[in-house]
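Record type: monomer structure entry
Structure origin: computed from sequence
Chain ID: A
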Amino acid sequence: MSAIRMGTGSGSVALADNAPSNPVLEFFGRWVKWIPAEVIAIYGATISQMQPAAGAASQTPVVSTPLWVIALVFTPVIVAVAGWLTKSTKVPLRVAFSIVAFVVWSSTVPHSAWDQFDLFTKNKELSYALLGLLSLVFPPLFDRAVGD
């Protein structure tokens, strides 16, 4: 959802009316709705552009921790500014939830900063299982807290 919609709480993650139901999209959409679309698009596109081209001499993936930190900082800033501009209520909650959502969502992006941690890379199945459990608990609590 865009920064303005995120800051105000208007709108939600939705598929087209004629789109088939997709439980996986709905499951991860719970997190994505708390992150400004601008951050998702810029972060995802930049990480993708940083990777070596197929057939390049070096096939070592590039992991950018500074980019992750920048996105992590800008996520709550964008949400706070959008909330302030629209005089939205519950902006502090939306800001806090956007930070948590970005951290969890970014773990699903290939070559994100999470790949710097051996504990994560050596135990991806366990890590994703724990993140999946978080996905069952936290997004509904977030929705309830802000009234979405």
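Annotation 1: Helices lie at 3-8, 23-32, 37-50, 65-85, 91-106, 118-122, 124-146.
Annotation 2: The chain has a mean pLDDT of 78.
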